[in-house]
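QUALITY CONTROL LOG
STEP: pairwise intake check
CHECKER ROLE: data steward
CRITERIA: each record must contain a sequence immediately followed by its structure tokens, with no blank fields

ENTRY 1 OF 2
RESULT FIELD BELOW
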Amino acid sequence: PGQPYKGGDFFAFLPDNRGGRRTAVLLKTAFEQGLTFQIKSFNGEERVTWGLIPHKTSWDGGKARNGYPDAQYLREVCTVL
């Protein structure tokens, strides 16, 4: 608190279907409550990073690379939210 930090560009993807739209509403609420991001120290520099809520940051690569396909993602993220 009270220290400068660096921001960043963050992108996440959801499917355009009923489950994806429902998840988007929950993610918006989490964002408004300050739960989406956190600040961490990297090499003595404070930076904004993703928080504990899992996000799909790629269209592909599967679960191992935070991408799709991942059949369980919507269920898992809704459980966290």
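ENTRY 2 OF 2
RESULT FIELD BELOW
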Amino acid sequence: DDGKQIAECRVRFLSFLGIGQDVKHCAFIMHTAQDQFIAHVFHCEPSTGALCKTIEAACKLRYQKCLDAHPGVSRGRGAGTPRSISATLRSVFGSITGRKARSAES
């Protein structure tokens, strides 16, 4: 309420962000340079939604800057778009189940 800064954290060290069952509570966990984890918990009126959306936007911006700084790293499979998580999981589990089926046949 008084406009004072409560915490200053770098987005790159954000380990977790979540909203509680009561939407007036949210928390995030930061990984420090001393290899410790610090939890910050907030109570906001009427909701923590705006705070979490702001933190989410900062994370997306950081991620986009990383992609821009290292072009081609996340696109190691060629010029196409990266695979979705579900496609990757299907591929992984498909290859595992395929291996099991082949080993059972021999």
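INTAKE CHECK: passed for both entries
DESCRIPTIVE NOTE, ENTRY 2: The radius of gyration is 20 Å.
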